[in-house]
Amino acid sequence: MENVQETKTLFKEMGDWNRQESMFRELFSEESLKDRDFMRMKLENYDKLYHKYNGKPLTTDEKALMRMLRFQRRKMEKILYPGLLRRMLHRGTALVKGLLARRRENLAIRRSNLLQYAHNATPLTQSPGQGRDQTQSQTQSTLSQRGTSLRQYPVSRFQPSLRRKTKIRRKGQGL
Q1: What span, in angstroms and rounded, lies between the C-alpha atoms of 124 and 157?
Q2: In angstroms, rounded to a whole number, what is the distance separating the alpha carbons of residues 165 and 13?
Q3: Is the pTM of this model over 0.90?
Q4: Domain locations in the chain?
Q5: How far apart are alpha carbons 39 and 33 in whole angstroms?
Q6: 42, 94, 98, 117: which one has the fewest Cβ atoms less than 10 Å from its Cβ?
Q7: Tens digit of pLDDT for each residue in 8-36?
Q8: What are the CA-CA distances from residue 15 to residues 10, 20, 77 (Å)?
């Protein structure tokens, strides 16, 4: 069975948040939605959505929704953080969180693309008529004859090279 991923849009994610908010309204009272902690949670979600979709190609409806999202964020920021300095501090932290989240998302996409490519790629030693399983078993048998395995450990670029000999500097010696 294939994994079918739904493409998330701004409308879908805002709809998810609205459903969650209506569920909170049913479980708790209307007063709990006006609470400072709930407004912070809502502002964090709005910040996440804003930074996720800001700069991406959007339809005209999504652009209007982004503009409304920005207005709502500014309004909630002024309520939660009345001082200018605290508001600027919040905007800075929200920006950094958004950038880190976008970076994590891009890394996850790259990893999934690389895994998909590695899974579908054929080894260079394989002729077009041979199957992937047959070539892998041949490689495994060849390596087992040599006494090695397929597992390779990554080499850190910060690990000092063992070939390089370092000079021992003694007191009184110059550079």
Answers
A1: 27
A2: 57
A3: no
A4: 10-119
A5: 7
A6: 117
A7: 888 999 999 999 999 999 998 888 888 99
A8: 8, 9, 22
